RNA sequence: GUAGAUGUAGCUCAGUUGGUUAGAGCAUCGGUUUGUGGUACCGAGGGUCGAGGGUUCGAGCCCCUUCAUUUACCCCA
């Protein structure tokens, strides 16, 4: 049998893990620096926890888990199961008779569930980070996987826009440390709601923003055509024209918007919030990222209600969104806990990896498959035991060391192993060295070697 | 869902209008070298050409079906 893995999933070898870990470490360090504490939640949730939170399209991308041991059901139940199975082939959902559990689709909804279940134990505002895989039953493509990691940081129980500022600052710092030139776009759902209010078509707001978002790709006429196809009235399209044409600096765009939304309370609130963020960007000293307001930024997840964020690499040809996030006023409400506002972001580490790979941003030092500093090569059983003692001495000194565990005919094999694993030094211990209590240390890249006693060896490798 | 591309050795891929025993590089193993890898040279093993059917004297190549992978649209990290 030829082995394979499910599509949209990947194995990660040591060399890839080294680089992935590098990203995780930087992200995690920044989460901690900004006061976020870690939690983890189960890979699977009750399906009722997840459905209805991600919009119609999102719901269909949830990976469902078939109920276990259905073969043990009583006979009358089996008939019911059969009917449900037949029915579920005809429609895009099935009941909990077949599926009670599902793999998590993101980390935000499980977080909301966690907050509700642990309400009395938490100190608000509660700041948590969470780095775990999520699963989506999407069709895989470049930069789109069925299993991928999200790195979330959310603060819940505070409606202050200072949280948004802190998150912006954290994004800037993190991407700076990763050395990724980044464009952070932000918008406010209240503005989108305002636009819908003015046009009197709140149900079409997603269609409208999606259409406007395509301006770059299909041009102004294309956008207008798409709006018409989505059932937007000609009068509304006429009204929208200044927004389609929106360009210039953040200030110029806001001026147009302010006028457009002058009769929408919620729209005006959105503008106020955006001004707050823009006014204080200087305070938080964004050093690296380009920050841009973009009223076409909509984001699919339907729980966002305020600020929304998205980041893309600002270089290269492969520029998928590598971070998303936003504010949700009432995510815990559906789980019965009202009045907790939250805001959070999610780094998409798999795409960050792909982008960094394309732009060759991984530092040389981590670009190898092993962290071993020295391999102790041996010539026989007695030498091998001697190596073990020396290895533990090296490790006590904090030097990553490994011992070649087999006694082999050709010593070259051990050098070959070190070479393949890119181990920089090989310590050779034969009977000569053992007698003198020394090591013949070879520098693998230079090809040179010198005989050292144990103290010299440690000093040399430190 | 819609459209395109690709399936040949463990991996990456060649393979001429259809014509003897299907090739290369890398990897593996052995040797040149029984105290030295990466470089060089010599040799070896390894294939139901994704699967099934059809056309033909003859199919890796043409036709049909099917499965898998992949890219784009939609949406998203």
Task: Kindly describe this structure.
By secondary structure, the protein is an alpha+beta fold. It has 17 helices and 16 strands. The chain has helices at residues 14-33, 47-50, 55-60, 75-90, 108-117, 162-178, 189-199, 205-213, 215-229, 234-244, 250-260, 265-280, 349-359, 381-396, 412-420, 431-436, 454-461, and strands spanning 37-38, 44-46, 64-66, 99-103, 126-135, 147-156, 182-188, 290-293, 307-313, 321-328, 342-348, 374-378, 401-403, 425-429, 438-443, 449-453. Helix 1 packs across helix 13, helix 7 (189-199) packs antiparallel against helix 12 (265-280) and helix 8 packs antiparallel against helix 9. It is globular and about 95 Å long. The mean pLDDT is 89. It binds one RNA strand of 77 nucleotides through residues 2, 4, 7, 55, 57-58, 61, 106, 134, 136, 138-145, 148-151, 210, 299-301, 310, 320-324, 346-352, 377, 379, 409-420, 426, 428, 430, 432, 440, 442, 444-445, 447, 449.
Shape, please? globular
- CATH architecture descriptor name of the largest domain: 2-Layer Sandwich
What is the tally of helical segments?
17
Structural class: alpha+beta
Q: What helical percentage do the residues reach?
A: 40-55%
Radius of gyration: 29 Å
Number of domains: 2
Q: Looking across the biggest beta sheet, what order are the strands in?
A: 1-5-6-11-10-9-7-8
Short description:
With 462 residues, the protein is of the alpha+beta class. Helices cover 42% and strands 19% of the residues. A hairpin with a 7-residue loop joins β9 and β10.
């Amino acid at each position: 049998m030829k082995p394979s893995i499910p599509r949209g999933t990947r194995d990660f070898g040591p060399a890839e893990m080294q680089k992935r870990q590098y990203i995780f470490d930087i992200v995690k360090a920044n989460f901690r620096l900004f006061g976020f504490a870690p939690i983890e939640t189960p890979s699977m949730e009750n399906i009722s926890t997840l459905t209805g939170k991600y919009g119609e399209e999102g719901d269909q991308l949830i990976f469902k888990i078939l109920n276990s041991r259905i073969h043990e059901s009583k006979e009358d139940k089996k008939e019911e199961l059969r009917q449900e199975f037949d029915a579920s082939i005809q429609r895009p959902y099935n009941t909990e008779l077949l599926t009670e559990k599902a793999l998590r689709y993101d980390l935000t909804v499980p977080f909301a569930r966690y907050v509700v279940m642990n309400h009395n134990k938490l100190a608000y505002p509660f700041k948590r980070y969470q780095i775990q895989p999520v699963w989506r039953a999407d069709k895989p493509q470049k930069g789109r996987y069925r299993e991928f990691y999200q790195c979330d940081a959310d603060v819940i129980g505070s409606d202050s826009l200072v949280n948004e500022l802190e998150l912006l600052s954290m994004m800037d710092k993190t991407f700076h440390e990763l050395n990724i030139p980044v464009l952070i776009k932000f918008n406010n759902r209240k503005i989108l709601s305002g636009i819908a209010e003015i046009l009197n078509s709140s149900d079409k707001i997603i269609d409208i923003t999606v259409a406007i978002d395509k301006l770059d790709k299909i041009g102004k006429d294309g956008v207008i055509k798409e709006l018409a196809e989505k059932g937007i009235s000609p009068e509304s399209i006429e009204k929208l024209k200044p927004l389609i044409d929106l360009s210039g600096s953040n200030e110029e765009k806001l001026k147009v918007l302010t006028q457009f939304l002058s009769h929408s309370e919620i729209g005006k609130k959105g503008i106020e919030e955006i001004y707050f963020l823009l006014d204080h960007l200087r305070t938080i000293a964004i050093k690296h990222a380009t920050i841009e307001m973009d009223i076409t930024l909509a984001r699919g997840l339907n729980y966002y209600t305020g600020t929304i964020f998205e980041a893309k690499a600002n270089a290269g040809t492969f520029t998928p969104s590598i971070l998303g996030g936003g504010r949700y006023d009432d995510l815990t409400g559906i789980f019965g806990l009202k009045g907790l506002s939250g805001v959070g972001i999610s780094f998409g580490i798999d795409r960050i990896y792909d982008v960094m790979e394309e732009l060759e941003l991984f530092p040389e030092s981590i670009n190898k498959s092993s962290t071993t500093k020295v391999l102790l090569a041996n010539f026989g059983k007695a030498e091998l035991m001697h190596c073990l003692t020396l290895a533990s001495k090296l490790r006590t000194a904090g030097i990553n060391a490994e011992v070649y565990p087999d006694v082999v005919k050709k010593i070259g094999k051990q050098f070959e192993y070190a070479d393949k694993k890119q181990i920089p030094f090989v310590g050779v211990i034969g009977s000569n060295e053992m007698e003198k209590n020394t090591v013949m240390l070879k520098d693998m890249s230079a090809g040179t070697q010198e005989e050292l006693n144990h103290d010299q060896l440690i000093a040399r490798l430190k």
